[in-house]
Amino acid sequence: MTEERERADNDSPWKEILEAYFPQAMQFFFPQTAAIIDWERPHEFLDKEFQQIAREAELGRRYADKLVKVWQIQGEELWLLIHVEIQAKYEDTFAERMFSYNLRIFDKFGKPAISLAILCDADLNWRPNQYSYNYPDCSLDFRFGTVKLLDYQNSWTELEASDNPFATVVMAHLKTQQTSKQLGERKAWKFSLIRRLYEQGLAERDIRNLYRFIDWVMILPKALEAEFWQEFKLFEQERTMSYITTGERIGYERGKQEQAYALVLRLLQKRVGELPTEVRDRLQGLSLEKLEALGEALLDFTALGDLLNWLQAN
User: Could you tell me which InterPro entries the record lists for this protein (predicted)?
Assistant: First the structure.
């Protein structure tokens, strides 16, 4: 499996980590908005509602978007639209798309949404935060919150000192960007960042969640990956972990997901023919559970449209 193909799946780790640590994400990236939310009350991910307003989006462009219902401290319901821009390139229609989704939410559900964007691209100068127009008798100025992950490279000491899980997320992202042509250095940083999880004394669940994110985004060539696993296995053994070989278990889980993807891909091609690249990439982003569900559902497929409908619904 090539690095380029695995990179097409980079929205999945962001979606997983946002769901696992949503309050911490808000407190890390958007503290002013987080301060008006009552975190004692449960938040709710509105995946079905978001799918309804995003159905018209082009299949080939996928985003780590989350629509979340929270409660304000004053007791009022509040909807948040969190967008993670992973495409890593300038997009002149980005602000318009942010406005469009915000408008669709209000139009369909009668709910104003706070729109927020996390920009993961490598262009320091690209900082969209508003969509506006102005005519003699009509004007609009829609502003949305943004954070630029590149800005955190000047706050590395603060990231290292933070116990917020999104400090680790940002560190992994930045080092992945910085080592695109220095993969030996990337291996060293991957080891360092995962070792840091243990040194922080995190619970096993938190180590596994953050380990998965780091492992997913900091892709290494097979030879370096093999070296990494051997070195880290020795590290875990030396520390005599009570929950030994986290790395082996995560590697096993990832292997099962890759095997399921390969099997489902072969079956689909027999049922509906060759799949477009963007559809294959979207399949690769499915969890093991979703791939298993698709493996059962595809027995009833007769055309590519059946698969597209299933992906839209799931």
Answer: DUF4351 (IPR025587)
Residue pair 136/129 in contact (Cβ under 8 Å)? The answer is: no
Indicate the helix (H) or strand (E) that contains 71. strand 64-71
CA–CA separation, 124 and 18 (whole Å): 24
Model pTM greater than 0.90? no
Max Cα-Cα span within the chain:
72
**To 5 degrees, how large is the angle CA 281–CA 310–CA 299?**
100
- Run means of pLDDT, 10 residues per run, the chain, 314 residues: 45 86 97 96 91 62 79 93 74 87 92 93 90 96 95 95 96 94 94 91 88 88 85 77 52 68 85 83 77 85 85 75
Question: Alpha carbon 81 to chain centroid distance?
Answer: 14
How far is CA 285 from each of CA 76, 86, 172, 233, 304, rounded to the nearest angstrom?
A: 35, 14, 19, 27, 18
- The residue extents of the domains of the chain are 3-151, 155-252, 255-313
CA 59/CA 51 separation, integer angstroms: 12
The first and second tokens of residue 83, run together, are 């967008």
Rounded to whole angstroms, what are the CA distances from 263 to 80, 206, 268, 291? 37, 31, 9, 9
